[in-house]
Amino acid sequence: MTMNKMRRKTMLVAVLALASVSSQLLAQQPVMPTRHEKQAYFVTTSNVKSQPRQVTASAATGDGTSAESRAEQRRKDFISRNFRYISMCEWYPGMRFMVRPTQKDLVVRTFSDARTGNMVSTRSLNDSILVYEGHANPTGTLHEQVIFHLESNPDQKYQFEVPTSSFDDYCYSKHGVPSLAYLGDVDMAIDSLTGKQVRVLERYLYQDTEVSSGSFKPVDIGDAKRGTVMTITKVGVGTKDFPVKIVVKEPDRNGVEGQEYFQLVTISRTNCGLRDEDFEKSDNLPHTFQGSFQLLADRVAVPAEQQLWVGKTVFTFYDTEMLDETEKPQKIAKMTSFVVTDIYGLGDSEMVTMTLRGKKDNKMYTKQVSTTNTKVTGKEEVLGELFMEGDPDNLEGVRKANLPFIQKGQVKIGFTENEVRMALGEPSDITRVTGGTYQWIYQYVDTNRPFRAIRFSNRTKKVTQVTR
Fold first, then answer.
1. 441: DSSP letter
2. How far is the C-alpha of 458 from the C-alpha of 437, rounded, in Å?
3. Which residues of the chain fall short of a pLDDT of 50?
4. What b-and-e string marks burial along 317-338, b requiring 16 or more CB atoms within 10 Å of the CB?
5. SS3 state of residue 203
6. Nearest to 278 by CA among 71, 80, 62
7. Is the Cα dihedral 90, 95, 99, 102 positive or negative?
8. What is the DSSP-derived secondary structure letter of residue 178?
9. pLDDT tens-digit readout, 101-117
10. CA–CA gap between residue 436 and residue 452 (Å, rounded)
11. Nearest Cα to 465, choosing from 433, 425, 423, 443?
12. Residue 160 forms beta bridges with which residues?
């Protein structure tokens, strides 16, 4: 083989190897979101006719989850794969932000004109899109400047002066640049979440109003709607701390169109300005995506001990409410039996969703329950308290003829100990009484539940007297 042929062969191998490496690198890159037009970022719930374009104060007082520590303990889900936190130290040219000042931001002038050095009114930049260029320390300045240009006019540049001695000192903090909502999260959310179905985990959402441009009202959707499946109809821009505005629509029922609600959330936390410890506060949890919504295609597996419920026959220990196949709330009587068909987690919370098939009506139901006794609102129902394993028609010491009384919480003469337990639960006290009897005392903290003393025969272990 001649020297020239050997050189050509060597070059060909190198080119092919480079092409192979390049294709592998491209395959590993995340899908980049679409850069949407400015108008696409302004969305409202359908109860208002006009689209507000003015300053929107934050609808929240805090934010959400303990981000990375708990995320590392779970499998990587859709959110962590597509919304990466980018610290200010990692910002790169081309990152896009929208000026979304709060009332506090309007008082302080954040930016200066890069050409003149004069401070610029934040109000004049409201809703403008700024593109990050980098940072520099111009001659004659004490602090480094973070530089942006106006997307609609790249020649117009603005600067934010970091308050510390150097950019490196400042970028490791969580403060970021005031009044800037990160559009990377908004773009990705528009592309990947619009049209998706989610289960609503938060009870308090919001609706836009027409009282003034950009105004909104909080809405308590109630425990009945909390946990229902809704559709993400629109995604837009929110605030600096909570840059993604997610609009969800409830299902139409009985010919009545479902309402729309919105929630402002931080997803990647980029430039949101909140410290890690802030994400640990449970009262701020709703304003993260995973605190407010659960993607139906991205369910979280539950521990093995909870999975043991799947396939078992259970019955309700007290009256409750469940959602039927149409997401409509249904009253469920005590001692109603079901087969558990599935159980799965709801993000990072202690709540799980159970799907159950009724033993008698063969219909499917959904129920959210807590896996711990630690209640946040005081209204959560606990898995091990609401459901008991077994079939009410075939329980030891429980006669079928007495089930109608047990369902109503009534105790009759002749009831067995198990029948009393099924009707009233465990007694608060047991006392011995003369004359060959003993007594179960039911003294409730809840004043709506009457005091009861149930006397049993020592010989038959059956009820001989009921005293209220």
1. E
2. 5
3. 1-7, 9-29, 50-76, 280-284
4. beebebbeeebeeeebebbbbb
5. coil
6. 62
7. negative
8. T
9. 887 777 778 999 999 98
10. 20
11. 433
12. 146
